[in-house]
Write a structure and sequence with these properties.
The chain has about 500 residues and is of the alpha/beta class. The protein contains 19 helices and 19 strands.
């Protein structure tokens, strides 16, 4: 299938087929074209002399290069369940799943948040992993593989590079953190992207809020912001190719020039330029009249607010220092300046959560609805999943039955007061927790799950068949001095800081 694509950079003409690389996205084409990190990696490698790179998605039917001509095969690994699609893509091209069973096949590697946080459940399937921000080390890895065609020699060399984990040569690995001097943006715009013809740009990386459960925050510390002049130059590049732009970042409103960027866009709209702009989500303190007016002028009708928990006590426990007064003020500002609705994002099953905390969510919804008649209020919830390299990595989940009861209670009570809510699947979240805190014993487990269909029942049956106690990974509260599977990855702030933060936050509860 031919897709209409607009390249925003000048491609290198690599006519020789001497070194061929496939850059794979474990999902369909439309999703891949809205994945900023994946497209940016493709662009930077596409600019290397003598490298022919091709994008491969789960629905790719015809490839330019034959698998026998491919020297390097890289995967983006952003979500825990991506392994299912990755395995099916390897099988599609007749590549043995385990690295030790491959001989003449290309080197297979992965990068992304899942394997940066904890690659151990997948270590037998990849020749190497990129740990951390991959913009620069990816290029180093490709160049090494281009120069050194013997697989073992290449892997030995790769194992000596900071930020590359080669399971064959285990050692301490330092997670890479890139300075954001340049702006990462969508280098290829497509009509067939999930966000059609949308130019996405990254304003900031990381989040200084440091919520106790949040991998996106801790994995990307410190908070880094793209310089203002670079942002404006990038926005202008995007707007010269499309009218749709999206600002990305875990904490974009913490950018020191966020309001200036909004003003810049607002003035362009007021002077007659058609711009559709969206933002990933907003902090409560970013809901100011100027920001809301810009969003409304740019066609956004609703926005998302992450409040995480219903009670002030529980918000303090997770390090989300957000008062009820601030939430009400934000809703009022949003309504008075033209937004039609807000979606509150929260989490159930957080450490120390009580029935009172759940009741507080209902009360919050009731009060907000009462004070803002005609304004659309909805809630979205997921359940707590302990993530590596966060202060709550030692905290187990509540059992599935308890969480499903909480989920049903919330849905029913919010429905009674006319508020719609979406809650993620508690059963799938359980398996996500197993994979998050898993160790190398899970390699055969994920393989068995894949071979038996990858549905919910496959997870349970595979654990039983292989005699794996998955509750240990998902539900157990770990001792603070327990060695963890991902300890070999050095991430700032280190384990000692996470321990002290764990104690500080959980002590608030008592």
């Amino acid at each position: 299938m031919n897709h209409k694509e607009t390249f925003l950079y000048k491609r290198k003409q690599n006519n020789n087929n001497d070194f061929v690389m496939w850059m794979a996205f474990p999902g369909i084409y439309s999703f891949s074209m809205s994945s900023l990190g994946y497209l940016w990696m493709f662009k930077t490698i596409d600019m290397i002399d003598g490298v022919n790179i091709e994008r491969i998605c789960s629905d790719t039917e015809k490839t330019v290069f034959n698998i026998k001509d491919v020297n390097l095969f890289g995967f983006s690994f952003s979500f825990d369940m991506d392994f299912l699609t990755i395995f099916s893509m390897l099988e599609k091209y007749n590549i043995p799943l385990k690295a030790k069973e491959r001989t003449n096949e290309p080197l297979i590697f992965a990068g992304g948040p899942v394997v940066t946080a904890n690659p151990e459940p997948y270590k037998e399937f990849f020749d190497f992993f990129i740990i951390g921000d991959g913009e620069e080390v990816n290029l180093t890895a490709v160049n090494i593989c281009k120069k050194v065609r013997d697989k073992n020699s290449a892997l030995k060399l790769l194992s000596e590079i900071g930020g590359i984990y080669v399971p064959k040569y285990p050692k301490k690995i330092k997670k890479l953190t890139k300075k954001l001097s340049e702006c990462i943006y969508t280098p290829i715009i497509s009509e067939d992207a999930f966000f059609k013809n949308t130019f996405i740009l990254e304003m900031s990386r990381g989040c200084a809020n440091r919520c106790g459960f949040c991998l996106a925050s801790y994995l990307n510390l410190p908070l880094r912001c793209v310089p203002y002049a670079e942002l404006i130059r990038t926005i202008d590049l995007g707007l010269s190719n499309t009218a749709k732009i999206a600002l990305l970042g875990a904490q974009i409103s913490a950018h020191p020039h966020f309001h200036d960027v909004c003003k810049y866009i607002y003035e362009k709209i007021k002077s007659g330029q058609k711009i559709d702009m969206s933002v990933s989500s907003l902090r409560v303190d970013a809901i100011t009249p100027d920001v809301v007016q810009t969003l409304v002028a740019a066609g956004q009708k609703n926005s998302t607010l992450a409040i995480e928990a219903g009670s002030e006590r529980l918000r303090k426990v997770i390090n989300k220092n957000l008062t009820e007064d601030k939430i009400f003020a934000a809703v009022k500002t949003a309504r008075e300046n033209g937004l039609r609705g807000l979606k509150f994002y929260g989490m159930i099953g957080l450490p120390t959560e009580t029935r009172e905390d759940l009741q507080a969510i209902i009360e919050l919804g009731r009060k907000v609805k009462l004070e803002n008649k005609g304004f659309d209020i909805s809630f979205g919830f997921s359940s707590f999943v302990p993530k590596p390299n966060t202060p709550f990595q030692w905290c187990g989940r509540e059992d599935t039955k308890t969480l499903e009861e909480k989920s049903a209670f919330l849905k029913k009570e919010l429905h009674k007061i006319g508020i719609t809510s979406n809650i993620s699947s508690i059963k799938w979240d359980y398996w996500q927790a197993v994979l998050s805190r898993g160790d190398e014993s899970l390699n055969d487990f994920v393989l068995e799950v894949y071979k038996t269909g990858g549905k919910l029942g496959s997870f349970k049956a595979s654990a039983k068949k292989l005699n794996i106690n998955t509750d240990y990974f998902a539900l157990e509260n770990y001792e603070l001095d327990k060695p963890l599977p991902w300890d070999f990855i050095e991430i700032n702030p280190g384990k000692d800081f996470l321990k002290s933060e764990n104690q500080r936050l959980l002590n608030i509860a008592t």
